[in-house]
Amino acid sequence: MGILTKYGSKAVFLLSVLWALTSSPFVNARTTDVRYSVLCYHDIVDESRPLNRPIAIPKLNEMSEHSKPRQYFSQTIELSTLITHFNWLKANGYTPVSFQQILDAQQGKFNLPNKAVLLTFDDGYESFYNLVYPLLKQYRYPAVQALVTSWIDAANNSSITYGDVQLPRSGFLTWTQLKEMQSSGLVEIASHTHNQHRSVVSNSSGTKQAALLSPAFTHNHYETESEYKKRILDDLMTSSASILKNTGKTPRIIVWPYGQFNDVNVALANQAGFTHHFTLEEEQHNLPETKRVGRLLIDEETSLESIQEYLTENTWQLPTQRVVHVDLDYLYDANPAQLNKNLDVLIERIHQLGISTVYLQAYADPDGNGVASALYFPNRHMPMRADLLNRVAWQLATRSEVKVYAWMPMLAFDMGKGYEYVTDTRTLRPSQNAYLRLSPYSKKNQKIIKEIYQDLGLYAKFDGVLFHDDGFLTDFEGPIKQGQRTDATMNIEAQSKAQTLIDFSHELAKIAGQYQRGGVAKFKTARNIYASVIMDENASKWFAQDLDSFIKAYDYTAIMAMPYMESEHSITKNQANQWVAQLADIVLKKTNSNKVVFELQAKNWRNQEPIDNTQMVQWMQILDKKGIQNFGYYPDNFIENQPDSDTIHPFFSLKNQGR
């Protein structure tokens, strides 16, 4: 019996569609270095047959195939769709390979074909044995099955907690089935953790995040780093031991639930004996020697065109940055009800603006002096004004669908007495005209700041960090030559101080980034720079900053494009427009604009009035006409709708930007 005949006429129709797609003009797969791609599947259903089990229902005791409609999870696909994918791979010259063949290729024992594909199936559903395994044998396609071992270990008549629903144990594989499939040589058994395929409450507001990614908050207690690490290591070792006990083989692969993991998880997985870890990163294909393996997540809505784009590395992401810089001080309120209202207003506003990124204040500065007097996350060294950062960052990421950068000081922490602060060499006191800053040359200060960033990364989840504009040392601060100083001497001093600050910021980013989703490799950095440093060649030595160094050091340099703040005297609107245009021209002569973000001022701090909405639009138009696409503004007064969202939306939103 042929494969198409066996699985029904619907598959025949779908196969006819795929033949038409094979002639579409996509880029051919690269062959300069042989790599492999990975497809990630979950549960499979056959709509042409009676369903022998519920898919997802609220309570175990309410299960009835006759009384309940079929309810599928988002990654569940029909059997006919899977057959279409298998046939499409075959028709287009793709060769599914085993994980062992990939390891052999790494060791020079096997040559991967130019269109090598690894098939993976997550969660251990019984459909893998009853529907997928027969197909694997028909096609001779190898695959990886990733198990949540606590689900497989569960008693026959028990239920499995999957998110907010209960599933019957019968909906999952048995160890007998797994051992049979492993013995066939077609199926590699991987771990999907023992009991971390779930969320945990991560803060006092009840925010739920992936158990692997976040320390748990239970009984008014934040899981410490050591407790967090122990929970995960114990789980990974338990899962590995269960697979070894029941299959006779130690698993080599850990597949991260939800694709969420950090560098701490990877180190613990290595400690537990796993050699490779599978993600849901789809940006590029994998070399045989790659330990961090990216995959494309497949669901019923994933088109063949999308699969082909991934397989040919023709995927695309909108590169433009549109940024709103948000003060948590605006959002915070001692009244929880008002705070919740403020949060809802912010989330809806950011969603409607259709931007890419939010720079979110992580420190408290209620007096507006630019110095952190408290923090918005649990930490060892400063007061916590409220456990707000993680909650708001997560809401912005999941509800407003933006990337969130934690906006943090590099040095401007008011730790009180007993610490060495940056001083002016002329007065031997901190400057009255600059932020109060901890000296970056003090080992004690470095340790404190690093620990603050460690707590930031551990207890809040975000995509990157924006270093505040406090990262400067004037020409009379830091190590300087005594006596007469020439311009050459001052330039050398400024370069040395600038590099010290850059190196320190890199350490801080690495410390915070290790706890974030995807780890340091995915963690983004941005840093504020004063416009005067760019517009006046002498200013670099006044602040120990320069644009070229920032461009090399960070993913983005956020230029403070604030004409009314930079000008010593009052200027007209026309002069402000000319200033923005001049700044843009200078930047374009110096660097690629893709790595800079122009931060426009939304408030005139000289008169404490908001910038006119019309002028804000004019500034955006000036930048756009010059080919500058990365821009945003600070501050965002979301409570009073300033800037006016309807006015700026046509010139600011990314929602209407196509490929």
From TrEMBL:
One of its GO terms (molecular function) is hydrolase activity, acting on carbon-nitrogen (but not peptide) bonds. Pfam families: GHL13 (PF14883), Polysacc_deac_1 (PF01522). GO terms for biological process: carbohydrate metabolic process; cell adhesion involved in biofilm formation. Residues 115-358 form the NodB homology domain. Gene3D superfamilies: Glycosidases, Glycoside hydrolase/deacetylase. This is Poly-beta-1,6-N-acetyl-D-glucosamine N-deacetylase PgaB. It comes from Formosimonas limnophila. Residues 1-29 form the signal peptide. Keywords: Signal.
